[in-house]
Amino acid sequence: MAEIIKYNNLSSGNPNQCFCQMKFDDGLKILVSQSKDGIKIFKLFIGFVPIKTLFQASFLEREKHKKFMDVNIDSSLLLDSYVETIKPILTSNKFYEFLNF
Fold first, then answer.
1. Tens of pLDDT, residues 43-78
2. Which neighbouring-strand residues pair with 32?
3. C-alpha triplet 38, 21, 87: angle, nearest 5°
4. Burial class (CB in 10 A: 0-12, 13-18, 19+), 23
5. For the whole prediction, is pTM greater than 0.85?
6. What is the pLDDT of residues 23-35, one digit of tens each?
7. Does the pLDDT value for residue 16 go beyond 70?
């Protein structure tokens, strides 16, 4: 199961700082970030420096969000859906497969 390292959603009071930093069992760290434009998932270097965009979708690109919307959660925040979908994934290979790399 992917470990949540830091999670900051709208409950923090700042809508410009919605993100979740996660780590897979094999060491890969990612950052899931929700901005006013959409969602991005970054690969992190040394645990906190974004070095590569692995996925991005604006809020208008509904088709791209579908694979992350299958989870049943009590939140209207898209970031929460992404986190709950990614959390059960164990390794970076499984994550890349999920993203269709």
1. 999 888 999 999 999 999 988 988 888 767 776 678
2. 20, 41
3. 90
4. middle
5. yes
6. 999 999 999 999 8
7. no
Strand partners, 24: none
The DSSP secondary-structure symbol of 61 reads -
d(CA 52, CA 12): 26
In angstroms, the CA 32 to CA 47 distance is 13
d(CA 2, CA 92): 9
Please give the radius of gyration of the chain, using alpha carbons only, rounded to the nearest integer: 13
Closest CA to 44 of 36, 56, 34, 54: 54
Token pair, residue 63, equals: 């088709």
- C-alpha 30/C-alpha 34 separation (Å) is 13
Task: Give 3's strand partners.
Answer: 23
- Concatenated DSSP letters for 33-56? EE-SSEEEEEEEETTTEEEEEEEE
